[in-house]
């Protein structure tokens, strides 16, 4: 499998993760941080528990760190990196632009979690920024890849239906409506945050978030603005317009 490079991760054995995306079990495994408890795991994995755990072990193999990429129309790229240090594994969600010397971290899903990295409108916006400009459909893969960065107290009523449609398209989960509700009830490992706009920059009040400028570890102000612009809903993404959007 070819190795890839990512600024700031030169020491890791990074490999493209695309081969996992067609496996229906990959998605509940990837979303596992929000599937806490026996009921959630039973609903998500059912009789496939053993196969899912075998897949989980492959994803966390220290000799290969799978990387999944989500390009944005702004030229920024979001990377989900399975950072597989022995006994210190986790998933890093990074955003990078060719003009930046290194990628910036949006969220970290591990025992020392950091986040949230996105609001619900931003998650939908990222899922609607396709490679082909003519396509405006919400992309189920992009939505579920980036869902673990979510932490938003103000989730709209139709969010569960949107998430359920993505799960139905990509997984063999018997009751995607139930699992969608569980995912939204357990967003990430952090406390869900309040998001607001300050001087045109989307920020939150999360105590573990790189997008809260009050935190000492916050991202640089210029990058906060860039990220806000890159993830912000585009003019044709009207509020409420996503409710019946097709999922691919």
Q: Can you characterise this structure?
A:
The structure is a single chain. The protein has helices at 26-30, 38-45, 49-59, 120-127, 140-146, 159-170, 176-185, 221-231, and strands at residues 14-16, 65-71, 77-85, 88-96, 104-109, 195-198, 201-204. Helix content is 29%, strand content 17%. The protein is globular and about 50 Å long. The protein has eight helices and seven strands, in the order E-H-H-H-E-E-E-E-H-H-H-H-E-E-H. The chain has a five-stranded mixed beta sheet, with helices on one face. The protein has a two-stranded antiparallel ribbon with strand order 6-7.
Write down the Rg: 17 Å
Helix and strand succession? EHHHEEEEHHHHEEH
Low-confidence blocks of residues: 236-248
Structural class of the helix and strand makeup? alpha+beta
Largest sheet: 5 strands, mixed
Strand arrangement across the biggest beta sheet = 1-2-3-4-5
Strand content: 15-25%
Kindly state the number of beta strands: 7
Distance between the termini: 27 Å
Our count of helices gives 8
Q: Mean pLDDT across all residues, rounded?
A: 88
- What share of residues is helical? 25-40%
Q: Notable features of this structure?
A:
7 strands; disordered C terminus; two-stranded antiparallel sheet; alpha+beta; single chain; 29% helix
């Amino acid at each position: 499998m070819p190795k890839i490079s990512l600024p700031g991760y030169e020491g890791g054995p990074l490999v493209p993760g695309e081969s996992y995306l067609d496996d229906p079990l990959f998605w509940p495994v990837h979303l596992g941080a929000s599937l806490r408890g026996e009921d959630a795991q039973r609903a998500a994995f059912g009789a496939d528990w053993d196969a899912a755990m075998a897949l989980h072990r492959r994803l966390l193999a220290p000799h290969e760190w799978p990387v999944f990429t989500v390009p944005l129309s702004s030229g920024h790229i979001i990377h989900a990196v399975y950072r597989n240090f022995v006994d210190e594994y986790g998933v890093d969600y990074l955003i990078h632009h060719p003009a930046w010397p290194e990628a910036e971290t949006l969220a970290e899903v591990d025992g020392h979690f950091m986040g949230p990295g996105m609001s619900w409108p931003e998650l939908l916006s990222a899922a609607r920024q396709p490679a082909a400009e003519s396509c405006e459909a919400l992309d189920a893969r992009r939505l579920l890849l980036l869902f673990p960065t979510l932490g938003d107290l103000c989730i709209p009523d139709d969010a569960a239906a949107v998430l359920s449609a993505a799960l139905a398209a990509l997984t063999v989960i018997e009751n995607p409506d139930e699992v969608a509700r569980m995912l939204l009830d357990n967003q990430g490992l952090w406390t869900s945050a309040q998001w607001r706009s300050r001087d045109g920059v989307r920020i939150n009040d999360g105590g573990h978030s790189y997008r809260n400028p009050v935190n000492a570890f916050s991202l640089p102000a210029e990058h906060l603005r860039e990220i806000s612009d890159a993830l912000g809903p585009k003019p044709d993404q009207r509020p409420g317009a996503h409710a019946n959007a097709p999922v691919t």
